[in-house]
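Appendix B. Chain record.
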Amino acid sequence: MEALTKFWLFLCHWVEFDVSEEKETIDDAIEVLTRAGLPYKTRARRGKDGGAEYVLYVKNADRDYARYCTGWRPF
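Structure tokens predicted for this chain:
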């Protein structure tokens, strides 16, 4: 089911923006994206260790602006 979900999101031009085990981290990013007026999707999935993971998706066209708004750094 996970592969089908990832494929559907890819076809609809949604890309994985942030993954966290803590919902508060995702909520902070959602607050910033909402203020910037960017569309987003969130979902919970099971991580490799069996625990819950929260995933934040943004539209592919908005990814760079979302990174700018949230202060995302590659390292």
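Further analysis of this model is presented in Appendix C.
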